[in-house]
Amino acid sequence: MAKKCGRPAKSADYADNKQRIIDTTIDLIRKKGADYITVRNVCAAANLSIGTFYHYFRDKDELLMYFVRDTSFETCSLQTPINKIGDRVSELYMRLINRYMEFGLEFMKSFYTAGNHSLSAYMSEVEGQFEPNTVMARSEKEISAAQEQGIVKTNADAHEICMDICTIVKGCVLEWCLMEGNMDIEKSIYRIIGTYLRDFLINKRG
Predict the structure, then answer these.
(1) In terms of residue numbers, what domain contains 184?
(2) pTM across the whole model
């Protein structure tokens, strides 16, 4: 991992300055959109030096990735049993969506755009594989485990299934934004993912 640059902060200021950058970024995204986020704009709004910024974040993309990487999907515990695989994968994705929603509707509408290259990179694949510790990688692990336990058909392509589920979730989030938050996104995700997975289930009841 590349070493952080910039002048080291005093320990008492470390958490405060980092949180100040994060809070300022949230505010700017809500007001002007994710495309407005640059190191210079964030520092100007936060009244911090560019050197201070680089002590906490390598660049703008690393800052934006904070909002999707702060949750560890590889190690998080799920409450839904694996025999209810549709609900289990839906619970997994709701962890990510609930994190977005904590920042509010305007943040979601401005953050969840094609212009947010950090988000696009996170919710995609590289050379046919999901990046480790992402929600997609964990969902593929869950589908594969369900196949091993005789819940999901073994001839189904787990990776392709998870690509489709990711697309479903993106569509639900977009619809929630278009409806100004007037939609039960959790209910929709559980219903649509459950319906989609039904054809892959051995007993058709997961």
Answers:
(1) 71-198
(2) 0.78
